[in-house]
Design a protein that fits this description.
Elements (H helix, E strand, L loop, with lengths): L1 E5 L2 H18 L4 E4 L6 H14 L7 E4 L1 E3 L10 H10 L9 E2 L8 H14 L5 E4 L21 E4 L2 H7 L12 E4 L2 H5 L3 E6 L5 H9 L17 E6 L9 H9 L9
Helix pairs in contact: 1-2
The chain binds fructose -6-phosphate.
The site of fructose -6-phosphate has 14 residues, from loops.
Length: 261
Amino acid sequence: MEIIILPTAEEASEVAARLVARQVRENPRSVVGLATGSTPCRLYQSLARKHTSEGLDFSGVTSFNLDEYVGLAPEHPASYHRFMEENLFCHVNIPRERIHIPDGLAGDIPAHCAAYEQAILEAGGIDLQILGLGSDGHLGFNEPGSSLASRTRIKTLTERTRSDNARFFTAGEQVPHHVITMGLGTIMESRMCLLLAFGKGKADAVAATVEGPVTANVPGSLLQFHPRTKVLLDAEAASALARTDYYQWVYQNKPVWQSDL
Ligand code: F6R
């Protein structure tokens, strides 16, 4: 894991956007894995700006989203279909037929999940997966206790996650209990992962993910086994780490040949 700590979420998101842009420029037919939630919003804004002002071209890109709520129609304001449409897809030129998001209304969920896995395989696997981190350490919607080898499937959210995500739903509306999520095994097959976490509320989950033991109790910690993961943090999210000085020294003193930003 490479730990990159920047003072603000804006700066960390800009670095993430440069990494995604580099991936797309180097391989215009890249397959990218996408996350929703508050964390990637600035990254998506920056990608939209790069598309408009620098001509960053997504016309060859294929995308796979991590997850969706079971029971929400694509047009529901809190659905991840709607989130992606508003935050990224309507601002860039990923062809519609190459956008994939789990279908929260799928009739046969196991068959839908198997087909989602198959589609990732047929696309050649995910080149770069963008990830956020739950305050309980979840990745995608793989809650604590998820199998470390899991594949795309239905999961039940913890009450903590339901309450964290209640802000996306209108008052009185129930946050769904069930979701479809890529599994931890699916995520681990991505060739590169970019894990973003911002704010004090993520500090403990970040410390457990980066410096704790690898355990199903903290799904993010599995990324310690991933060969190419960059963790992009603001100062608050990094505040419970023990080796901050070391991570910052490493980042600021990268040899030129190793610098990728
Ligand atoms: C969303 C997802 C989740 C979020 C996590 C953090 O697609 O997979 O793992 O990344 O719940 O959410 P925010 O960014 O809202 O704090």
